[in-house]
Specification:
The chain has about 130 residues and is mainly α. It folds into two domains: about 60 residues, Helicase, Ruva Protein, domain 3 (Orthogonal Bundle), CATH 1.10.8; about 40 residues, Ribosomal protein S13/S18, C-terminal domain (30s ribosomal protein s13, domain 2). It has six helices and two strands; from the N terminus they run ββαααααα. The radius of gyration is 23 Å and the shape is elongated.
Length: about 130
């Protein structure tokens, strides 16, 4: 398994898809990187030569913010929003959707899958004594 930026990329996938396993690299950025390094996007990751892997590492690590640095930057940005008390920061603090989604319905994942409908928490009828 080739390792790039501390991430083992899958061998059985095309290089174009395999490098998207690195946090901060999506489809469009992977295409740009492969164009810059002149590597065939349809090539499997296991077929990469050591020289190609090294060129990928160099381009990715020198020109793009990925993995730990990017995660740290995102955390710092969220912390800044919380500290200055912006609306988005308050939504982060309350663990609610930040980008204007509705919350009356459709926020099950954010609210921890809370079901507040009639039938969900109904108790069985009392047994006669």
């Amino acid at each position: 398994m080739p390792r790039i930026a501390g991430v083992s990329i899958p061998e059985n996938k095309r290089v174009e898809i395999a490098i998207t396993y690195i946090y901060g690299i999506g489809n469009s950025l992977s295409k740009e990187i492969l164009k810059e390094t002149k590597i065939d996007p349809n090539k499997k990751a296991k077929d990469l030569t050591p020289a190609e892997v090294n060129s990928l590492k160099e381009v990715i690590e020198k020109t793009h913010k990925i993995e730990g640095d990017l995660r740290r930057q995102v955390m710092i940005n969220i912390k800044r929003l919380k500290d200055i008390g912006t609306w988005r920061g308050l939504r982060h603090i309350k663990k609610l959707p930040v980008r204007g989604q509705r919350t009356k319905t459709n926020t099950r994942t954010v609210r921890g899958n809370v079901r507040k409908t009639m039938g969900s928490g109904r108790k069985p009828a009392a047994a006669p004594t």
